[in-house]
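Researcher: Please translate sequence to structure tokens.
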Amino acid sequence: MVDAAGMGAGAEGVERSTEPDSPNGSALTIFELAPEEDSGSDTLGRYRFQAEVAARDCLAMLTQDAIEFVVCEWHENFVVALADGSVELVSVKHREETQGTWSLPELCKSGGLTHLFDRWCACECAANVRLRLATNAALNPAKGNAGTLARMCGPEPEVTDGRLAMAEKIARQMLKVRWKQPYPNIPDTPQVRTLADIQMPTGFVEKVLRFLAVLEISCEPPQRGDITDVNIQRLLVPAVEQLQLAHVDLEGTYRAIVDRIEQANRDESDRSQLAAYIADPSRVRHSTRMQQRIGRRTLTRETIRQQIAYTTVQLPTFRPGQVPVVAPGGVKLSRKLRQGLVPADETAFAERLRSAWFATWSERRSGLAGTNQTC
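Model: Translation complete:
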């Protein structure tokens, strides 16, 4: 993730009229360019916000079998791999409250829409690829603006009237963005003074229409100052309860999960675009190097489980001469002691030791399967 805005980043922030040359003289592609946000212009808080949005899917993965793993990418914020073989490319866009709602042109220029379209094209518009633009800001509710666009997205859109006209409007905005930003999968048309004069490439509007059918625009992420508390109370707490875990340090666990996401996102050795490989595993099957790259950025259910932190429980202590409460059960232990002809005083000591253990165990048990049985 490297964008202030579910995998990183945004080539849309690279304001260049031409592609620079690499040291060997060849033209660099957008996937080899470090996003502008890496220059340090974004605040640490915005980077953290991206990780906390990804944490929402990671927390859902704890209790939902539909999510197999999450991959933190370079130019996308993250990719969610689903059990049915589909993948969802997520782009996170943060917007300060003082900036107001997203307008349609802003959504295309700096709101990640053009970027997601380019990433979808890089995945060859595969049928198993879905897209999500997640933002903390609301959408302009005016007729024909960003709010209307969101209602026209998805395989079963809420609004169907005017979808073709909306697709053409989006197409013109994307072609305009392409004049300044080097998206390799968007046609580079001659610059003109007005959007209406843009020469529309054959089939481009129809392609944008297909793009809208696999896109979701979500305004669910909370504001940056609220997202930590909301994620803990609405996602982590229910997950802990469903998993029947005890003595979980909620804040410590949440911090560890977000830190682990940021660690995966900071894999500076890999700046390539990985979504196409995740969407089509056959591309990576015979490439050990690519498997390693994806592996370094992959967060599995087990990875997230390993971040769960537990509170320290004070061990029970007994005053000299005090005997702990006799633990229930213990039939197996008594039988083994009798069969081993253990002396009575040693048998009594073993029973007291077991009772002391039971008192400790009852306070520290995790709730995991198999830990609720006594010997």
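Researcher: Any highlights?
Model: Residues 218 and 307 are 27 Å apart (CA to CA).
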